[in-house]
Amino acid sequence: FVLLRLDLLRAGVGVGSSAPGLIQTPIASVLDSIKIMSSSPVSYDYDRQDASGATCTAHAWAKVPPALGAAEKEATKARIKELLKQRNAVLVAHYYVDGDLQDLAQETGGCVSDSLEMARFGRDHAAQTLIVAGVKFMGESAKILSPEKRVLMPDLDATCSLDLGCAADDFAKFCDAHPDRKVVVYANTSAAVKARADWMVTSSCALAIVTHLKEQGEKILWAPDRHLGRYIEKQTGADMLMWNGACIVHDEFKGLELDLLKKDHPKALVLVHPESPESVVAQADVVGSTSQLLKAVVESDAPEFIVATDNGILHRMRQMAPNKVLIEAPTAGNSATCKSCAHCPWMAMNSLQGVLACLEQSTGEITVEEATRVKAKGCIDRMLDFVAQNPAAITKPAQGFVPNIGTA
Ligand code: 13P
Ligand code: SF4
Questions:
Q1: Residue 65's closest CA among 156, 160, 155, 132?
Q2: If you measure from the C-alpha of residue 123 to the centroid of ligand 1, how many angstroms do you get, rounded to a whole number?
Q3: Cα–Cα distance between 207 and 287 in angstroms, integer?
Q4: Which residues have CB under 6 Å of ligand 2?
């Protein structure tokens, strides 16, 4: 028997075992509820996931540090630059974090990129300390690949709803029940979940890797993002059994409102991250990872774009395509509410102050238990080897998309 939260069970969502409001249910019915893959709207929140509340979105928003005044910001940036050199450290940032952090990473020889390039950059860079500005799974991937390096993060509470929604124990039972399937997990999972997987993928290379597995005659067990899984399943025709997780940010984009917005902007190209619901992906001109969407903005002749991904990426899009008009895709109608409103609360926890604390006080160190690390490394290496051997299989970020990439 395992424990499930009643409201999520009704919605067909498997959750961790420590939440209140739980019932006991036989594993078979848990697995059925996961397998059913309801495509009806699911209400996600994480404010009851643990007693401390550390995993809820409200906790994350409350921990977003206040914006610094201009003078303090400049002084903090200058101190960080100095300490990065002194400590032989490099800043590895995701496109969704604060623009100042993205700029600082770029100016100091670090990297601003999607999760695939962050993993490669951290692995290949000579610095002994990696400061990862993103969410915890990104720091864990860096540590798994480079155990000899110190990996620090501005706030270790910066998690991800996909990681939270895929507890390692429940996932292990799901895998045990389907030994005939290759286990493919998205990067947005814990080290313990990766330790159970055959392959890790990111949104940049998921299509290519699942296509490859299908060609080998493999059936797939996929976790945790149901929207990305469904998109890949449709594109490849692979036999995929899905976990039922979602990203709270992309899950809030609305197909109906997008349709209305498109009517107001008939010339705009619609760019969609595949963690978005089917009704949104169906209206996309380009579906891709964060770097693939950035590439589309820069390379397309279109003057206007509607962007369905975390709005943190608009910073880099504006820098790289200053003459293009960028419109955020709608997360809800005017009278509705949203939890993320197109910005990930956990990404928002990353700040200049947090990076400075990492460098001054060595706060936020990522650790991964060695046996788990060794097992988890297998699926990440498999992905990195695949993309190295099949460079044409993924849309490579063009020159300038990942600053300083050649230096790593
Ligand atoms: P990318 O790999 O496309 O950067 O996506 C990571 C992520 O967390 C998206 O929500
Ligand atoms: Fe996770 Fe979504 Fe945040 Fe990405 S944007 S880190 S998938 S919650």
A1: 155
A2: 18
A3: 11
A4: 135, 160-162, 188, 247-249, 275, 310, 344, 346-347
**Distance in angstroms (rounded) separating the CA atoms of residues 103 and 251:** 28
Write down the pTM of the prediction.
Answer: 0.86
Give the orientation angle of helix 206-215 with respect to helix 370-389, to 10 degrees. Answer: 80
Tokens 């991904």 locate to 309
Question: Which of 188, 280, 309 maximizes ligand 1 atoms within 8 Å of its Cβ, making it the mutation to test the pocket?
Answer: 188
State the pLDDT at residue 407.
Answer: 41
Tell me what pLDDT residue 59 has: 86
**Mind giving me the DSSP string for 73-110?**
HHHHHHHHHHHHHHTTEEEEEETTS-HHHHHHHHHTT-
Regions in the chain scoring below 70 on pLDDT: 1-55, 333-336, 395-408
77-122: pLDDT as tens digits: 999 999 999 999 999 999 999 999 999 999 999 999 999 899 999 9
Task: Name the residue with the closest Cα to ligand 2, atom 2.
Answer: 247
Please tell me the residue having the least CA distance from ligand 2 atom 6. 160
Whose CA is closest to 198, among 178, 169, 225? 178
Whether the CB-CB separation of 184 and 220 falls below 8 Å is answered with yes
Closest CA to ligand 1's atom 3: 289
- The CA-atom distances, in angstroms, between 101 and each of 80, 104, 316, 347 are 11, 5, 11, 11
Q: Which residues line ligand 1 (CB under 6 A)?
A: 114-116, 188, 202-203, 247, 275, 289-290
